[in-house]
Amino acid sequence: MQKIIDDSLELAKKLQDSISSHLSEQEKAFHSKMQKLLNNPENKVMLIELMDRSFRCLDNKARFEMIEHVLDKYKSREIFSLFEKWLLMGFLSFGKMLPDMSVPFFVNKIRSDTKAMVLDQEESQLKERILKRKNEKIILNVNFIGEEVLGEEEANARFEKYSQALKSNYIQYISIKITTIFSQINILDFEYSKKEIVKRLDALYALALEEEKKQGMPKFINLDMEEFRDLELTVESFMESIAKFDLNAGIVLQAYIPDSYEYLKKLHAFSKERVLKGLKPIKIRFVKGANMESEETIASVKDWALPTFSNKQDTDSNYNKMLDFVLEGDNYKYIHIGAASHNIFEIAYVYTRIHAL
């Protein structure tokens, strides 16, 4: 094990050195801004609230007032460059008089600053980026950003987006969530909710299989995990639906939820049974977790026990416990795994463990 650790540290250093040596000036400036977010939690809250309110309303006058309120509420300006501070000063001083000009400019500036992480949905730009990465032997996972849908009209619109993505001749891999394809999820009526979700998953998997044969290009649907309340429903719906198809598909498990380890064993047994029948294995992607603030808020308001680990060390331990299970004996032969982490040491460790098999 010590050799694994030493090799992981050496690989992490090589990766970090390579990354650092290839950073552009624009990327260095962006990293500096992100560091300021980490140093002061209030900066992160302000930026999230600012972005949320900037895109939520269509009326520019109302949007200006929302943005003005957020900037007045949080006085800190340390995350902004000198030029951006001048722009903000001008926006707050004169923007109210011409909101139809100032607000779109403000929003476009946000889009520009986040374009390295969030691609515009415009087809030409998306296609260009995907094909560029494909030439580099990288398949992009297309994840349509959006919140939990509030009605079936919105759910149908999102379903249509997923369908069009699968029908495109350049998108191979998409991520979906159960809360974006069905708006009336009720955990108390588990069977009804599962039936409706399975019906929609069936349609997407069938379309993926059809397009795969038609285009001669693999199609992959990944089912993202959301809050703890949706864990069992997501796993059960996934297994019931994908059992009908010989298709590449996957699901995400979050290590900060203790129950994820038991669901991993259940999904592995399911995948092993598929493989022994001659069907394709499922893919399971491990992540640390993405909804901690939401889980803490719900637990606090409802006076419930926190369903996640309360500290990072336990989450990291569970992540590696899940990895240990997959690499135990011949377990790895019956599933495909993906390891996602912002921690370069974690990525290096997973890579080293897998290549040591």
Distance between the termini: 13 Å
What count of structural domains? 2
Rounded mean pLDDT is 91
Q: SSE order in H/E notation?
A: HHHHHHHEHEHEHEHEHHEH
Give the strand order of the largest sheet, numbering strands 1, 2, ... along the chain.
1-2-3-4-5-6
Helix % is 55-70%
**Major sheet size, sense and barrel closure:** 6 strands, parallel
Radius of gyration: 22 Å
* CATH 2nd-level architecture of the largest domain: Alpha-Beta Barrel
Strand content: 5-15%
Low-confidence stretches: none
Structural class: alpha/beta
* Approximate shape: globular
Q: What oligomerization state is this entry in?
A: single chain
Class of the largest domain in CATH? Alpha Beta
Per DSSP, the total helix count is 14
Number of beta strands = 6
If you consult CATH, what is the topology of the largest domain? TIM Barrel
Q: What's the helix and strand layout?
A:
Elements: H1 2-21, H2 25-39, H3 41-56, H4 60-73, H5 82-94, H6 99-114, H7 123-135, E1 141-143, H8 152-167, E2 173-176, H9 190-215, E3 220-223, H10 231-242, E4 249-254, H11 260-276, E5 283-287, H12 292-302, H13 312-326, E6 336-339, H14 344-355
Helix pairs in contact: 1-14, 2-3, 3-4, 4-6, 8-9, 9-10, 10-11, 11-13
Question: What would you note in describing this structure?
Answer:
There is one protein chain. The chain is an alpha/beta fold. It has two domains: 2-114, no CATH class; 123-355, TIM Barrel (Alpha-Beta Barrel). The protein is built from 14 helices and six strands. The protein has helices spanning 2-21, 25-39, 41-56, 60-73, 82-94, 99-114, 123-135, 152-167, 190-215, 231-242, 260-276, 292-302, 312-326, 344-355, and strands at 141-143, 173-176, 220-223, 249-254, 283-287, 336-339. The chain has a six-stranded parallel beta sheet with strand order 1-2-3-4-5-6, with helices on one face. Helix 1 crosses helix 14 (344-355). The chain is globular. It starts with a helix and ends with a helix. The model has no long low-confidence stretch (mean pLDDT 91). Pfam families: Pro_dh. InterPro entries: FAD-linked_oxidoreductase-like, Proline_DH_dom, Proline_oxidase. Keywords: Oxidoreductase. One of its GO terms (molecular function) is FAD binding. This is 1-pyrroline-5-carboxylate dehydrogenase.
